[in-house]
Amino acid sequence: MDNSERFARLAAAPFSTIDSGGLRTTGRGGKIGEIVARRHLLNLLIRRDLQARYRDSFLGFLWTVIRPLIQFLMYFIVLGQFLRAAEGIPDFAIYLFSGLTLFTFFNDMVFGATGSIVLNSGLVKKIYLPREIFPLASIGGAGFMFAVQLVVLLVAAFVFQALPEPVMMLWFFPSVILMLVYGVAIGLLLSALNVYLRDIQYLTEVLLMLAMWGSPIVYSWTMVSDVIYRLGLPAWVLEVYTANPITLAVLGFHKAFWGAGTAADYPPDLGLRMLIAGIIGIVIMWFAHRLFTRLQGNFAQEL
Question: Where exactly are the structural domains of the chain?
Answer without folding.
Answer: 31-302
